[in-house]
Amino acid sequence: MSDMESRIVRLEEMVAHQAKTIEELSDQLAEQWKVAEQMRAKLDRLTERFLSLEEQAREAIPVTRPPHY
């Protein structure tokens, strides 16, 4: 194998390795995006629940004059 052929083989190996790395990173990014979306949805549900509970708590407290009046 000539020097030129060995350089081409090394370059092809490097490109194949980089392509595999890019694909793995893309898969990881997609997975992280899915997790982030699930967390965002959960946060939205928890926020709605908190606001609902806060609203119910406000309604449960009667508005009366303090005892020192």
How is this structure best described in words?
The longest helix has 58 residues, at 3-60. The chain has one helix at 3-60. The chain starts with a helix and ends in a 9-residue tail after the last helix. The chain is built from one helix and no strands. 84% of the residues lie in helices and 0% in strands. It is mainly α and 69 residues long.
Order of helices and strands: H
Mean pLDDT: 91
**Unreliable residue stretches:** none
How much of the residues is beta strand, in percent? under 5%
Helical residues, percent: over 70%
Principal-axis shape equals rod-shaped
Radius of gyration: 30 Å
The main sheet comes to: none
Structural class: mainly alpha
The number of helical segments is 1
State the separation between the terminal residues, measured CA to CA: 101 Å
Number of beta-strand segments: 0
